[in-house]
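Hi R.,

Here's the chain you asked about this morning:
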Amino acid sequence: MRQVSRAGTIRVFGKQIFVSHTLDEDNVGLEEVDDGVYDLFFCFYQIGRYEL
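And the predicted structure, written out as tokens:
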């Protein structure tokens, strides 16, 4: 679980990633689906996929 900052970003492994201003100060979840590939979830909705 990560909290989205007021700037709309989260920090993952020392990197700052923009998510959305709409989710400011809400919690999002990350699930690893492959080596270095993560799905981003808000509640039970998948809202993105990031390759770190």
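The CA atoms of residues 30 and 51 lie 12 Å apart.

Let me know if you need anything else.
M.
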